TrEMBL record:
The gene is LOC116237469. The keyword Repeat applies. One of its GO terms (molecular function) is calcium ion binding. This is Parvalbumin. It comes from Phasianus colchicus. The keyword Calcium applies.
Length: 112
């Protein structure tokens, strides 16, 4: 399974275009534009599984900087500031990594 089996390729492209410039990435906006914020809990778990590059069950800081590249290999790397901000926002238990529950928690608390 790939991300485009769950998310619209045009929505992914629009989300990536929105954050092309360094330090322009907003997780909330990215999740909204890409359609992630509208997905079910099971779909979010599958998206997380795909994003978890080393399949450890967590996305650590060193993986998180490549977050956009998991959606498109030519996308830019997140800046150190963007990575730290994203990690701080989605790491709901403070362990320095994001689990599937952290992503779901972050998205769910920001839904309209």
């Amino acid at each position: 399974m790939s991300l485009t089996d769950i998310l619209s390729p045009s929505d992914i492209a629009a989300a990536l275009r929105d954050c092309q410039a360094p330090d322009s990435f907003s997780p909330k906006k990215f999740f909204q534009i890409s359609g992630m914020s509208k997905k079910s809990s099971s779909q979010l778990k599958e998206i997380f599984r795909i994003l978890d590059n080393d399949q450890s069950g967590f996305i650590e800081e060193d993986e998180l900087k490549y977050f956009l590249q998991r959606f498109e290999c030519g996308a830019r790397v997140l800046t150190a500031s963007e990575t730290k901000t994203f990690l701080a926002a989605a790491d709901h238990d403070g362990d320095g990594k994001i689990g599937a529950e952290g992503i779901k928690f972050y998205i769910n608390r920001r839904r309209f």
